[in-house]
Amino acid sequence: MSTSSDQVATLSGLSAAELRGAGELAARFPLTPNAEPATAASHAEIMGDLTFGVAHTDHMVRAAWTPQEGWHGHRTEAYGPLTLSPAAAVLHYGQEIFEGLKAYRHADGSVWTFRPGFNAARFAASARRLAMPPLPEEDFVGSLAALVAADERWVPDAEGSSLYLRPLMIATEPFLGVRAAHQMEYLVIASPVGPYFAHGFEPVSIWVAQDYHRVGPGGLGAAKTGGNYAASLLPQQDAYDKGFEQVCFLDAATSTQLEELGGMNVFVVDADGTVRTPALTGTILEGGTRSSILQLLRDAGRTVREETIVLSELLDQIRSGEVAETFACGTAAVITPIGRLAGEGFDVTVADGRPGPVTTELYTALTDIQLGRRADPHDWMYRIV
Ligand SMILES: Cc1ncc(COP(=O)(O)O)c(C=O)c1O
Question: Which fold has domain 22-194?
Fold first, then answer.
């Protein structure tokens, strides 16, 4: 009963060729250097032992918004705590959005980001859904360029490592009434990171949540906003307790269709080479990695389908061998093979628990482009330094 659709990605954003140069855009966020940056010793200690999302760099980017002034106060300054009223709307009603992307060091020392225009477009789309003012896309890219330029020493060069960039927008207006706030703050912070999964490119085990949903029809699923992640934390914790690494969520309306993991999209590779991923129905976050994988597969002439994937059918297809590989993808973990899929009443192993050839090929292609090791025909890479 799966319905095939030719639905294509809805976000693409400006390509690197369409964006103004990083120096010009970064100048929109003038730098006041941190007077007390991390010492050389503490920098070396942090960079020598990178885990995901623990350390932060010396600077952050900021801008503010009010209806009267629009976006103003663009700047790059020392990383540090915020002053926020306890009545700030974000603390009560969760009016906030965020993004996640990486800066990569290439072998020649240059520093690049991957499809920042895509994330800029998604950030603007998330803003609209949360009744927040969209940030102009070139301001978004400029803010990344400004922070990376200020914190260039924090861009690692070890294989699998990068500088993770976290833009966010929060409603800062001190007002307890329930309505869209009239005061916003935009920030970007950065964190040098190693691989998301300590075990690297090895299959993960997934627990399929049947009692909990992350989002529902008409809700916030297509936006990158904190509430969706809050909804995923308890099922994620349950999955850990059961010995699984990640949770896969089903659609809230029928609890029969695969949607995505807490922070990654999912793909299925059929034994005949067809590649499938859940269609964008409004309850799934459209990933830049997902979009890029679809493009790479189409470039390679593969059959690609964005369609409904019914869990019971998928389990049968895995058992019969009709499905050869499954994998998850996202900026943080790039591409991660799924080796085991379990839930109440089922537990199946995919591809003997080993990374399959299509998954491996895609991982290599994508990371080669990101690290400047192969051609970039779609102008995805944007040079910052
Ligand atoms: C819920 C969710 N789905 C999918 C993704 C993958 O998106 P991307 O490939 O743009 O990182 C992410 C990560 O941002 C996510 O949080």
Answer: D-amino Acid Aminotransferase; Chain A, domain 1 (3.30.470)
Of 116, 163, 102, 111, nearest in space to 385 by CA: 111
Residue whose pair of structure tokens reads 């809700």 in the numeric block: 219
The whole-model pTM stands at 0.96
CA of 357 to the centre of ligand 1 (A): 23
Residue nearest ligand 1's atom 7 by CA: 287
Residues in the chain: 385
Q: Domain segments of the chain: what residues?
A: 22-194, 199-372
- 330: CA distance to ligand 1 center in Å? 5
Protein residue with its CA nearest to atom 1 in ligand 1: 263
- Average pLDDT of the chain, as a whole number: 95
Task: Name, in order, each residue with C-beta under 8 angstroms of 301's C-beta and a sequence gap of 6 or more.
Answer: none
Confidence of residue 3 (pLDDT cuts 50, 70, 90): very low
pLDDT at 332 over 60: yes
CATH number at 199-372: 3.20.10.10
Task: With H, G, I as helix, E, B as strand and everything else as coil, classify residue 48.
Answer: coil
199 or 124: whose pLDDT is higher? 124
Q: Which residues form the pocket of ligand 1, taking CB atoms under 6 Å from any ligand atom?
A: 100, 260, 263-265, 285, 287-290, 330-331
Q: Which residue, by CA, sits nearest to atom 12 of ligand 1?
A: 263
What would the pLDDT profile of 290-314 be if each residue is shown by its tens digit? 999 999 999 999 999 999 999 999 9
Both tokens assigned to 68: 């009267």
Q: If pLDDT is split at 50, 70 and 90, which confidence band does 335 have?
A: very high
